[in-house]
Structures are given as structure tokens and as C-alpha cells.
């Protein structure tokens, strides 16, 4: 067996053991442990501390350094608790009891679109517990098609995909997924995408939390070419562990517009939706993610052409 495969399998076993331990601990205790781990990550080891400080300073310039430090600690707490919630979800959330953990906000809009005779593009960001969104929409009877990059570790990839597809979510590979997406839209399916992934220097650049960020143009193109409405969803924690609000922040329907929006306009629209939910619950966003890396080449200033030297006038 190849050394990398052995290493991958050992990492997989370690992760499975960790998940088993987390599942054996009550969520209330997981919450307290997550707070302790957040303190270690943020205050002691300062993991990605410079990136966190930079992101929060640009997004919330009105905050004091101490306020940003507390917000960074709360964001670590959210991330740690999010992992615990995902581990507990297969045992805690079922078709008969999901309503005890999830409140709905304007979700009837999404249901209406999902039951219609058109395709739907559902968008969400790295906000709240987005991993549970696909799991819970499947519980509600609305399976989605999601594009995701395969993990480098094949054992972990299979394990994560098993969780994601447990309630009907169908995972499409990131590379070469265009024909599958086209077929999903043709068959009036529901395509669910994370909208805030860096698209590189050639993406569509719009302002996000006071700085330009790159977005994939394909998201807007899917709606423009198929006529699919774009629904921005969120799943935010509203209380203790495993207590969420699933809601619709906004919907853009090209069929209801006198003049359909272009790529940049649609991108700006869903970016504004994401910024609204982030500003309401900033601790539930992935600030450890380098969302604003700008790989564009700096524009070279045009140098003035040299002028021929003037001859001195005769005395």
C-alpha cells in the first residue's frame, strides 16, 4: 500500500474516532468545550490572528481592538460548535423532530419556487451552519444538487459525501460539472451553491464588507440562461446548540424584471444579501477564510512620454 494512502487512512481513522467522541458528549457540554477551544485558538495560540484582525478591521472599522478580539473569539466558538452540531445531526435531526430545532422564516417562498415548473438556484454563504442546510432541506423533502470540490483524502471524501447525501442531497464534482448542471436546470431541479468562494483575478469583482471580492460569474449565468429565480437562503443559530432559523433573505426572479440584470448586477444583488445576514450575526461568518485575497496584477501607471529637451534661447 502506498505511504500516502496509509497516511490518509490513519487520518480518516483519527477523524472517525474524534466524531465518535463528540457524539458521545452532550451538546451542552460540547458548547462549553467549544468556548474553551475558541479561547485557546484566538487568545493563546492566535491561529490566523493577523488574518482575522485584518478582515474584522476592514469590515467593522468602527469597532475598538478589544471588540474585534471578542468578535474573533466568538467566531471561533461558532466554528467549533458547528463541527459538533454536524457530528450530532444524523442522530438528532429526523423527519419527525426537525421542527424542534429549526424555525422557519419566509421559507414558504422557497417551497413555492421548489414546487414550481422552473429550475431554482439556491445560494448561501460561509455563514451559520451552511453544511446542515443541505441536510435539512433534504429532510423537508426538497433534495438539491450541490457542487463541491473532492477532498484530497479519499476516505474522508467518501465519509463526508455519505453525510451530505444522507437525506437526498446530490453532490456534483467541481471539475467537469457543467453538463450535469445544464441537465439539472433543464429538468427544473434545484441547484444549491456557496456563493462566496474566491473566483480568482478573472472573477466578477464587487464590494463586500468594504473591500472588493471576486465572485464566480457562472452563478449569475445559470440564472440568466435558464430563467431560474435565485433564492438566497441562510441558516443561523438563534439560541443554544442545534437551534436554528432557516430563512429566505431575498429572491431575484428574472421573469419579474422589466429589464433582466446582467452578470455584475446579479452578483452585486446576492452579495448584498450575504452582507446583510453577516452584519446581523457577524460571529457566524467564516472570518478565518481569506475571502478578500486580490490576485489581480496591479495596474501600471502610464508613464508620460519623454519630451524633447528645449533649446535654450539665444541671449
UniProtKB/TrEMBL annotation:
**Has UniProt tagged this entry with the keyword Membrane?**
yes
Record GO terms (molecular function)? acyltransferase activity
Q: What is the lineage of its organism?
A: Bacteria, Pseudomonadati, Planctomycetota, Planctomycetia, Pirellulales
Organism, scientific name: Bremerella cremea
Biological processes annotated in GO = glycolipid biosynthetic process
What Gene Ontology terms describe where this protein resides (cellular component)?
Answer: plasma membrane
The UniProt keywords, alphabetically, are:
Acyltransferase, Cell inner membrane, Cell membrane, Membrane, Transferase
Protein name per Swiss-Prot or TrEMBL: Lipid A biosynthesis acyltransferase
In this chain, the stretch annotated as Disordered covers 295-315
Amino acid at each position: 500500500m502506498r505511504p500516502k494512502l496509509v497516511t490518509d487512512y490513519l487520518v480518516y481513522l483519527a477523524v472517525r474516532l474524534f466524531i465518535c467522541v463528540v457524539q458521545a458528549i452532550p451538546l451542552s457540554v460540547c458548547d462549553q468545550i467549544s468556548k474553551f477551544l475558541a479561547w485557546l485558538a484566538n487568545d493563546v495560540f492566535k491561529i490566523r490572528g493577523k488574518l482575522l484582525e485584518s478582515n474584522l478591521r476592514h469590515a467593522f472599522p468602527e469597532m475598538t481592538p478589544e471588540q474585534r478580539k471578542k468578535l474573533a473569539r466568538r467566531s471561533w466558538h461558532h466554528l467549533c460548535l458547528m463541527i459538533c452540531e454536524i457530528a450530532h445531526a444524523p442522530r438528532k435531526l429526523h423527519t419527525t423532530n426537525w421542527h424542534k430545532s429549526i424555525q422557519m422564516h419566509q421559507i414558504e417562498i422557497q417551497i413555492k419556487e421548489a414546487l414550481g415548473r422552473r429550475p431554482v438556484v439556491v445560494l448561501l454563504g460561509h455563514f451559520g451552519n451552511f453544511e446542515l442546510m443541505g441536510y435539512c432541506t433534504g429532510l423537508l423533502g426538497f433534495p438539491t444538487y450541490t457542487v463541491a470540490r473532492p477532498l484530497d483524502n479519499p476516505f474522508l471524501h467518501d465519509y463526508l459525501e455519505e453525510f451530505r447525501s444522507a437525506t437526498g442531497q446530490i453532490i456534483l464534482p467541481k471539475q467537469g460539472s457543467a453538463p450535469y448542471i445544464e441537465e439539472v436546470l433543464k429538468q427544473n431541479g434545484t441547484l444549491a451553491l456557496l456563493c462566496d468562494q474566491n473566483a480568482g483575478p478573472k472573477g466578477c469583482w464587487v464590494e463586500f464588507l468594504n473591500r472588493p471580492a471576486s465572485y464566480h460569474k457562472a452563478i449569475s449565468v445559470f440564472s440568466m440562461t435558464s430563467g431560474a429565480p435565485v433564492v438566497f437562503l441562510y441558516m443561523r443559530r438563534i439560541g443554544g446548540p442545534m437551534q436554528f432559523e432557516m430563512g429566505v433573505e431575498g429572491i431575484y426572479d428574472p421573469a419579474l424584471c422589466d429589464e433582466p440584470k446582467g452578470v455584475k448586477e446579479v452578483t452585486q444583488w446576492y452579495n448584498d444579501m450575504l452582507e446583510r445576514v453577516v452584519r446581523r450575526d457577524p460571529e457566524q461568518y467564516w472570518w478565518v477564510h481569506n475571502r478578500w485575497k486580490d490576485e489581480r496584477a496591479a495596474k501600471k501607471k502610464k508613464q508620460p512620454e519623454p519630451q524633447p529637451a528645449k533649446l535654450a534661447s539665444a541671449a
